Amino acid sequence: MTASIADLTGARLREHLGGEGLRFHIGPFLYQLHSEWLDIAAWLERLYAVYPLAAPQDCADFHVELFWRGWRKRQLGVRFDGEILPYPLFGSDYAAPHMEWGLNWGVAMHAHWLLMLHSGVVERGGRALMLPGQPGSGKSTLSAALGWRGWRFMSDEFCLIRPQTFDVVPFPRLVPLKNAAIEVMAAFAPQAQIGPEFPETHKGRLAHMRPPAEAVAAMAQPARPGWFVFPRFVAGTSARLQPVAPDLCFARLATNAFNYEVRGRTGFDTLYRLVSECPAFALEFGDLDAAIAALDELPARD
């Protein structure tokens, strides 16, 4: 049985963070995390307990480090693979969200062997439901909610496509809930583990939700592309699911991706195949239960 972060005692966890680094998996990526501020261990014990530790012989994909900076006022910074990330200095009370942004930085900037769409992803019956959207569209909240209502949560923001096999690769990281979504998800899924609030970030009020343990346990299992649904939260509206033409779907995806241009011809060919094979819809919703009921009626895929 694979060991997880929960298997490390508090003292041993701190030894890893301050020494050779804590090595753990999120989806296809192996992170090595160092921290000069050892109290980040409490965050990891609370929200990362179910994430698997890496085998000693495995090489890390990304190295992330929290380190002390400044000489007048002691504050923290983030290094990624030795490069200082362009964040303002921050106090230890905001170390956790900056660490999370550092973990995401590596994927968005360097995981170019995958086609990366800016999209939530959930799975059922071996098929992935991909939920592309801009910030504020409700994709993260809807993806998180579906993960507690019969779908396997795969990601709230990164839809990772392996061009060689056409698989959708899970990346079940913590879900950053923003502003009103914090209370919405706390009421919708009271069994969910939600961390402390950070009231003043560049994205507003923020709290992180751990995905269901089953989603983390299954993060080595890819899915086949199934459907595209472009969500749009509009308070007070009923759920409406309407078809989206393939040409419009392609244009929206191409402009809503992390590395479509970087992948060149491979990016075009992969996106063309996705749009050709996956029916696409627009979903306007004002209520999570109604949205999930509408998505449960999507046309079946073999």
Automatic annotation (TrEMBL):
SUPFAM superfamilies: PEP carboxykinase-like. Transmembrane segments: none annotated. GO terms for molecular function: kinase activity. It comes from the Bacteria. Gene3D superfamilies: P-loop containing nucleotide triphosphate hydrolases. Keywords: Kinase, Transferase. This is HprK-related kinase A. It comes from Plasticicumulans acidivorans.
